[in-house]
């Protein structure tokens, strides 16, 4: 996959000391999960509980999650709206506001949500577009943590324990996309 691009063109940072930008260089030595999201994206909202669980379980062991808020709509460019969404979701990891999609473009991203796993040396090792496959992503996180520190004592996996795993259970309607234009590129 190659070297992880730096976070560029961000307008504001949340959950960082003094609001200073997080950097790939500054996080070298840690396993980094870069999460591209938008607060009004339902797929992103459904992924957030998994990110929060991974942050809680693996941050003490060397995982650093960095959210890159990449707006799809004009109202998502408001720093106040982004900050409100971060508080509402309980997000405590760093989040950069990428209103002009500069970091999004550097990563050649095209999807919400998108996760880029970066090893401790700064190389992108795995990419996951969309929601789902949380067990696979967690396995990749665990593998990269072990590579970074073979002596690390990993906790039990959190996959399957997240409340959001019940989506699709009885009483929950799956998301449906309607319309001719939704069939483009299929």
From TrEMBL:
| SUPFAM superfamilies xrefs | Thioredoxin-like
Where, by residue number, does the polypeptide cross the bilayer?
A: none
Spell out the InterPro entries in the cross-references.
AhpC/TSA (IPR000866), Thioredoxin-like_sf (IPR036249), Thioredoxin_domain (IPR013766), Thioredoxin_ResA/DsbE_sf (IPR050553)
- List, alphabetically, the PROSITE patterns matched: THIOREDOXIN_2 (PS51352)
Q: Tell me the classification of the organism that encodes this protein.
A: Bacteria, Bacillati, Actinomycetota, Actinomycetes, Propionibacteriales
Entry-linked Pfam families:
AhpC-TSA
* Organism from which the protein derives: Kribbella sandramycini
Q: Which residues form a coiled coil?
A: none
Q: Report the protein name in the record.
A: Redoxin domain-containing protein
What would you give as a GO molecular function for this chain, any one? antioxidant activity
Q: Where is the Thioredoxin domain?
A: 1-146
């Amino acid at each position: 996959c190659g070297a992880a691009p730096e976070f560029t063109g961000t307008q504001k940072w949340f959950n960082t000391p003094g609001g200073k930008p997080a950097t790939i260089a500054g996080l070298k030595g840690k396993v980094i999960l870069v999460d591209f999201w938008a607060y009004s994206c339902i797929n992103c909202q459904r992924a957030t509980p998994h990110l929060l669980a991974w942050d809680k379980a693996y941050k003490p062991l060397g995982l650093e999650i960095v959210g890159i808020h990449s707006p799809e709509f004009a109202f998502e460019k408001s720093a106040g709206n982004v900050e409100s969404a971060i508080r509402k979701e309980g997000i405590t990891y760093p989040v950069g506001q990428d209103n002009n999609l500069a970091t999004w473009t550097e990563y050649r991203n095209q999807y919400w949500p998108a996760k880029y796993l970066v090893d401790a040396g700064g190389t992108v090792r795995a990419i996951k577009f969309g929601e789902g496959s949380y067990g696979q992503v967690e396995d990749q996180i665990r593998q990269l943590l072990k590579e970074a520190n073979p002596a690390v004592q990993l906790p039990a996996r959190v996959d399957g324990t997240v409340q959001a795993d019940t989506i699709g259970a009885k009483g929950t309607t799956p998301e449906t996309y309607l319309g001719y234009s939704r069939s483009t590129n299929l």
